[in-house]
């Protein structure tokens, strides 16, 4: 197997985990510490939008890389075409889609006083998806690290 595939998947997984950590642990809390709530919310929403679209792009790239790596390992009798790393990438992709693209429109409705759910409830669920995404990315990065 070409070593460059393994390096790329590890590098991208680590980079993605770092982006998620910076957005969730540094940027968003800092915004609410220095800006008024409404402005901080607007900037944070923009950061999470960028994170979501970046996540879609990185998920597609990692799925393509992982499929090649898993297929080559399966051909050599060292695994399955559906590797643990591929399952982790699909889990992260699910968190991106559910946590941002499904919940964000519902959060906008709740902010406008519409829909059955409160903004706080939807924000909490979205936060859980974001945390789970970060944890799955850490696990993926760990598994992709050279041994």
Shape: elongated
Q: What is the end-to-end distance?
A: 15 Å
Strand count: 0
How many whole angstroms does the radius of gyration measure? 17 Å
Look at the structure and give the mean pLDDT.
92
Give an overview of the whole structure.
With 147 residues, the chain is an all-alpha fold. The chain has one domain (3-144). Helices cover 85% and strands 0% of the residues. The protein contains four helices and no strands. The model has no long low-confidence stretch (mean pLDDT 92).
Quick structural summary:
Helix content is 85%, strand content 0%.
Question: What brief labels describe this structure?
Answer:
about 150 residues, mainly alpha
Secondary structure: elements and pairs:
Elements lengths: L2 H32 L2 H39 L8 H28 L7 H26 L3
